[in-house]
Prior knowledge:
Distance between the termini: 116 Å
Helix content: 25-40%
Strand order of the largest sheet: 1-2
Largest sheet: 2 strands, antiparallel
Low-confidence stretches: 94-101
Radius of gyration: 37 Å
Structural class: alpha+beta
Strand content: 5-15%
Amino acid sequence: MDHDKTGCQAPPEGPILCINNCGFFGSAATMNMCSKCHKDMMLKQEQAKLAASSIGNIMNGSSSSSGNEPAITTNVDVSVEIGPKTIVAQPLVASGSEESDEVKPKDGPKRCSNCNKRVGLTGFNCRCGNLFCAVHRYSDKHNCPFDYRTAARDAIAKANPVVKAEKLDKI
C-alpha cells in the first residue's frame, strides 16, 4: 500500500535517538526526545511561564491574591526615642528557625569517664549520668554514687501501693 494515498504516516525505519544526545531513544510524541529530556524541557517551560507572569504582576503593580505564591508576614514592634536617637526593633512572632540557627559545638570522641578510653557507639550510660566502657559499665567497677537501694525501694513503693480493706459495719 502506498502511504501517501491513505494519509497514514510510515513507521520509522529505525529507532530515533534523543535530539539532546543523551544516548536514549526518543519518540515523535515527545518531539524526538527521551522521556527524561522531555520532562525537563516541560518543567523549564512551566518555570519560565511562572517567572514571566510574576514579573508581569510586579511591573503592573498588582498583588497576587490567588494564593499561589507564599506570603511571609512578621509583626515587628518598633520604638523610636527622639533624644539620643535610638531605634529598637523587636520581632513579636518567634519563629522555629531560631532554634536551628544555633550551632552546637561538636564534642570530641566519647570517652569512658573512668579510664578515658574511646568508646564511640559502644559506650554505656550509667544512672549516675556518666559514660563508661565495657569494663567500667557496672556500678561496682566505677564507684557509682547513685543509690540503687533507695531507687529500688521507691519504685516498689510506687508500683505496690498499700491496700487496706474498708471497714465493715457491724450488725
